[in-house]
Every structure is written in C-alpha cells, then in structure tokens.
Write a structure and sequence with these properties.
Elements: H1 2-20, E1 31-35, E2 38-42, E3 48-51, H2 52-58, E4 62-66, E5 76-84, H3 92-106, E6 111-119, E7 125-133, E8 138-146, E9 150-158, H4 161-176, E10 179-180
Antiparallel strand pairs: 1-2, 2-10, 3-4, 4-5, 5-9, 6-7, 7-8, 8-9
Length: 187
Amino acid sequence: MQRFKAALLVLFLLAVQSQSLGQKVDGTDGTILMGRHYSFILKEPSEWVMDGETAKSQGLQSVLYKAGSSWKAGVVVMYVRVVYKDETQPTLEKVIGDDVSDFVKQSRDSKVTDLRAFSTRDKKHAIVKGFYDGANKNYESVAFIDEPRVVVIVALSSRNKDEFDKSVPAFQALVSSYFFVKELVDR
C-alpha cells in the first residue's frame, strides 16, 4: 500500500509539475528529490549533470558536475544535502551557526562571509554564505533554504578560484530553480 501511495504521489507531482510550473526551456522542469519529511525540485544548470546515484554513497541528496567530467574528477562541483531539524538544531539559524562554527574550527586561515541572498522559484529567500578553507585552498558558496522540518543546503565547491568564479552563475541558477513541493509524512 505504501508503494502504491508513493507511486501515486510521484505521478501527481509530475502532472502538476508539467502543467503549472511553466519553465519549459528544454522540456523539463527539473528533478524531484524526496526524502522523509520533504520533496523539492531542482533544475540542473545548462552543461551540468545531476547525479543521484553517486550522491547516495556520499550521504548527499544529489551531486552535480560539468558535463564530460565526474564527481571525482570535477574541478568544480555542486552538491545538495538536507539537514533535519531536531532538538540540537531546531532552527535555520542554529543549522547555519553550527555549520559556520564547525568550519572555522578546522583552520585559523578559514573565512566565512555573508553573500547576497537568492530568491527561489517558490519565492523563498536562500541565505548564502561564502566559505574559504585556507588550509585546503577550497572555495564554497553555500545556500541555506528553510523548510518546516528540514534545512536544504545547496553548495558550489572548487579548489580553483577561476573555475569557481565562472561557475557562480550556474550555482545561482540551481538555487533559483528550487521549489518545495510537499512535506512528506511517515505513517
């Protein structure tokens, strides 16, 4: 019965997606990512590949890399992960605070900056932080999107500053494509 309900939900979401979202540049509105207490849509930027299979082994919801590359070999990559709100991290602010605190503990040369927030397709505001890992010379832009039971995190990462800078528009496009569909409930 659970599988039947899940299949009906997916078919319903696909029907709604194709009729109401209206972003038909290449015939698709994006990929539905689902888990306990969430489902949302992201559309990979042009010339990027969204890979859910590789993401699973990394404990992520999705990874993205440029077409012709791979998650392992990519000079610049993006990833999506979901953090569940709980007693230790009950709010968006706490999730961001813990992420920043954990990051700066790793190296005294690390820096975190506030970047311009992005609007998502469903008119939410993604809080964006810039992370520079001085020890590993890694650059990241991380968008935090608040939902009732989770915080969705979308990140751009590279050890090459020029490639990172060139990929910022793709990161903005990915975050801007975000659309929360439904909070899924376990029964």
